[in-house]
DNA sequence: GTTAATTAATTACTGTCGCGAACAAATCTT
DNA sequence: AAGATTTGTTCGCGACAGTAATTAATTAAC
């Protein structure tokens, strides 16, 4: 049963044609302005290396489609012919970005260019079943979507804390919501008529993804990970999640459930994890691990966990031995896991989110020392570790960016039907 | 419905032009024939989805460049106009594939299409310094390269067991050769005049890479990993190496030293590793780990290690308790590490090389059980695990494929200067 | 205040790429 | 022998990008 299993059943990827070229370049122009903000024709031409005429045509299409606007140049200052700038139209494409939290769900309407247009928040009904909760979510989204049907593109991006299959947004497990095996992606798509342009279709696209993956996207696009070639994003509060962006693509969100870095085994004689296994990394580095190491009892209310953690960090800052020692232990465990990940993935930057940013800011030495000891190369030993710069918004922004992706890779497909 | 299938390509910099289009498609045609063997115009047209005329032009260029030949069709049999097949010219592009082993280095001349044209083997001079050994290697390669200067493309691919920086082929550490910090890639490039087309340039391109990475390439291209979307290749004899192929690109070979999966930490109270750290995965799953678990003393000669391992496996097959238990322990450790890697990377296939193929064939249950216990999804729990189908040749083939890459992605650049 | 220099956008022209339709070729079927 | 079937080639078309000349708008220099 080994060799030469039939034929390579996988079809060769279709070869690109001139139409693909146009699609690609149209997307590149839009993406550039979306990511880097307003800029002139000349700047776009320079950045993309295209011919001037080409850029002109592409910009014209995007303006005509309502995604970009041409504005008169602000106060020339430089000499030479002043050049009008092109900027995104925030209402030209909007994403309903959703963050599913324990108490309720937060909704942000994010426009093209990354501008947050509005925010809302609704509590869960504690008595509601999973089905009812999802139905409520759909209802709220429908309401928000209906208010914005003028935009040529509208999408929904949901950040879900838990184990989510990127391919179709199937939620295998969302511990803090108590959800298990919920086909959230399909339910939202149906409820909002994703794809159905005319009849009842409120949005073009729905994505549901792991919040750590989306945090990685956010940091890569508009945060501390910008410009990295291979970014490792590690987030922790309760549990540890992570996302890997490799040369611009998210490792994990495409197919299965990759990126569950919190559950790599680091100690066969360790603590039992929520997932049922023993010795998962997250049992040694998440917030409860810190409390355990500090001898602080687990607060009964999940809501007060953050406060207890802040307390331990404060105590450590103040020099109380028990807290200092706890921080040292957890920081070391953080370093050990990071070292493994560096061996496996070779990131050129690491971004820490959640309480890890605070932990590392307080006590970088134990973490760095492990990397120094275990790294095989200067690159590995000295990987830059940065705090996440999008702490509060990471999931939102990532969800928005991710949901916007279809538009950015093929604006024409969205504009054509109009 | 089918939303969620976005393939995020978050890059922006280089915009493709029509020239890139042509380059791309020319490469696709060559790659297709190289990988899947001789085929007709019609088949190529179908596989690539290009217009018939386009394929005709591209094939014409490749034939004119001496990379492909047109052959009369074999026995029509079917009705319709018979179609000549196009096949690779093995001598049209050759790679000098090198495997650096303990006793000496092996050299295979591999032609386009993956055909091995010749093999050679030279022992190291035990008294030689590292510099002298490299000089010898260069000399042998020069000799082999000079014999084949007729080919439009010639390259060198070196598989090196150790820690190798993919970017430039810098060998940080090659334990079995006793090499440390050798700029092998640069030395070979200089010695063979890589790139210098006219004056003394014998080859176009030189790559040096980790043998596990190259094994992964070989298995992905022409072995048990063919067709996988995300392939995890794990190899072990002494030490554990690994390679990850994600959507057709090697995760480690591009930049730093990634892919050193043998050195992820699995037990803080474990055994000290050669690398100086404690509890590396390879201390629990490589050949010496098996011997240790079986209570067999480490043979003094590295050469007799394989024999000792085979003996333990044989004993286990025969049901001797100590050997059976040792195999169980190591298989379990294999499963633990694989489970972590599955969590992190989410491969859709795992290929085991080196003695791990035999170990798993003998005792798959403990490994599979760990994956079953720890996996979060059906995909993760049931990842196919296959033995490498290119056991002996993996490094060779991978080196050849990898060194051929520049030709396959841009045949015109090679053909133009002629 | 006029002129030169500088930078930018538009326009027209040219060459290339891939597509599709029509036609030609080679074999099989009836 | 005529039609059917599949394949390869040719040629016109549209789309795209590159180049160069022209026009436009501003600053700097005299």
TrEMBL record, chains A, B:
Pfam families: ROK. One of its GO terms (molecular function) is kinase activity. It comes from the Bacteria. InterPro entries: ATPase_NBD (IPR043129), ROK (IPR000600), WH-like_DNA-bd_sf (IPR036388), WH_DNA-bd_sf (IPR036390). The keyword Kinase applies. Keywords: Kinase, Transferase. Residues 1-21 are annotated as: Disordered. The keyword Transferase applies. Belongs to the ROK (NagC/XylR) family. This is Sugar kinase. It comes from Phytohabitans flavus.
């Amino acid at each position: 049963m080994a060799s030469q299993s039939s034929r390579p059943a996988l079809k060769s990827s279709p070869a690109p044609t001139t139409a693909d070229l146009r699609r690609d370049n149209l997307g590149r122009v839009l993406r550039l302005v979306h990511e880097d903000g307003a800029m002139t024709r000349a700047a776009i031409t320079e950045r993309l290396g295209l011919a001037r005429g080409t850029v002109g045509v592409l910009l014209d299409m995007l303006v005509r489609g309502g995604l970009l606007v041409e504005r008169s140049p602000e106060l020339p200052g430089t000499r030479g012919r002043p050049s009008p700038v092109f900027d995104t139209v925030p209402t030209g494409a909007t994403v309903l970005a959703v963050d599913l939290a324990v108490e309720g769900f937060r909704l942000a309407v994010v426009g093209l260019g990354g501008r947050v247009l509005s925010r809302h928040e609704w509590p869960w009904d504690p008595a509601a079943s999973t089905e009812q909760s999802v139905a409520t979510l759909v209802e709220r989204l429908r309401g928000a979507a209906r208010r914005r049907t003028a935009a040529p593109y509208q999408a929904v991006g949901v950040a879900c804390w838990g184990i989510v299959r990127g391919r179709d947004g199937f939620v295998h497990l969302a511990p803090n919501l108590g959800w298990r095996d919920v086909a959230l992606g399909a339910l939202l798509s149906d409820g909002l008529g994703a794809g159905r342009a005319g009849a009842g279709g409120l949005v073009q696209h729905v994505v549901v993804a792991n919040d750590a993956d989306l945090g990685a996207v956010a940091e890569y696009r508009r945060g501390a990970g910008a410009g990295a070639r291979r970014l490792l994003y590690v987030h922790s509060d309760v549990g540890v999640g992570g996302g890997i962006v490799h040369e611009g693509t998210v490792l994990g969100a495409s197919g299965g459930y990759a990126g569950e870095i919190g559950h790599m085994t680091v100690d066969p004689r360790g603590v039992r994890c929520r997932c049922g296994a023993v010795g998962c990394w997250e049992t040694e580095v998440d917030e409860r691990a810190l409390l355990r190491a500090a001898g602080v009892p687990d607060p009964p209310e999940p809501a007060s966990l953050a406060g207890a953690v802040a307390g331990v960090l404060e105590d450590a800052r103040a020099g109380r031995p028990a807290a200092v020692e706890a921080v040292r232990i957890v920081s070391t465990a953080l370093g050990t896991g990071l070292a493994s990940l560096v061996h496996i993935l070779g990131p050129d930057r690491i971004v820490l989110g959640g309480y890890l940013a605070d932990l590392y800011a307080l006590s970088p030495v134990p973490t760095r020392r492990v990397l120094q000891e275990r790294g095989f190369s200067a690159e590995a030993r000295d990987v830059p570790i940065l705090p996440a710069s999008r702490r509060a918004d990471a999931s939102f922004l990532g969800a928005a960016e991710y949901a916007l992706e279809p538009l950015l890779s093929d604006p024409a497909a969205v504009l054509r039907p109009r």
